[in-house]
Structure formats: structure tokens, C-alpha cells
Amino acid sequence: EVQLQASGGGLVQSGGSLRLSCAVSGLSSDGYAIGWFRQAPGEEREGVACVDTSDGQQWYPDSVKGRFAMTTDNAKNTAYLQMNNLKPEDTGVYHCAYDPTWFVCARVGYGMAADFESWGQGTEVTVSS
Predict the structure, then answer these.
(1) In angstroms, rounded to a whole number, what is the distance separating the alpha carbons of residues 98 and 109?
(2) Exposed end of the chain (fewer CB within 10 Å): N or C?
(3) Top-confidence residue, 111 or 63
């Protein structure tokens, strides 16, 4: 069973940066998708980044493109989400998730709902104006 744990959230001013970490354990295959999602109070969950580890292709919706970037450290089984130029609308609880298929990343990139197989507990990000 794949388990994930997100960390690194906090309070930051508008225009600031944060880096979130996602520790992944229980992996048994080389190719899979890791995605980042956020959910603000009263809002639907939104995918903000995804990487297909089989070829490294990354997917971002227009709302964060150019501001957010994913990296992975395979030796540490950790994925990171670097968030720059943060805006108040980026506020929410951020979760990372795992799926054994790559096409869920495309759904994240096109701003569509995506159901990943395993989810970790979230980390809260608050961006003040």
C-alpha cells in the first residue's frame, strides 16, 4: 500500500514562496503519477500539479502555470512543490496523491477532476494579502 505525507505548509504573504514536500512509501513500480491538489473552505478540490515519473512529464493547470513547479528526489522517494508568487487565492489545504497510471496527470493539466488511488494527509497553506 502506497502511503503519502505532505508537509511544509504555513503562512506567507502575497508574492511570497513556499516549498511543500511529499514523502512517499510503499512504492512497488517505477512508473506512476504523483499529483498535488488543494482545497479551500467551501470549494471543490483542485489539482495544481502532476508528474508522470515514467518520463518526467509535468502537468499544470492554467491557474498555477509559471508559478508552481514540481521536482522529485527518487533517492528519498520525495516529491516537492515549489510555489512562487503566491496569491491569496492559493490558500487551502494541500494534499499529495499517488496513482499507478499516467493519464490522471493529463486530467490535472486540463483542470478536470482526477481521482487518484492513494491520498496523504494535507498541509495547510495560507496566503495573506
Answers:
(1) 15
(2) N
(3) 63
Q: Give the pLDDT band of residue 74 (cuts 50, 70, 90).
A: confident
The answer to whether residue 84 scores a pLDDT higher than 90 is yes
Strands 10-13 and 123-128: parallel
The sign one gets for the Cα dihedral 62, 64, 67, 68 is negative
Cell of 79: 516529491
pLDDT at 50: 96
The answer to whether residues 107 and 45 touch, using CB atoms and an 8 Å cutoff, is no
Q: Which pLDDT value is given to residue 31?
A: 86
Cα gap 73→123, rounded to integer Å: 20
Cell numbers at residue 72, please?
522529485
Which residues face 13 on adjacent strands?
A: 128
Burial (Cβ within 10 Å: 0-12, 13-18, ≥19) of residue 44: exposed
The three three-digit cell numbers of residue 97, written as one number: 496523491
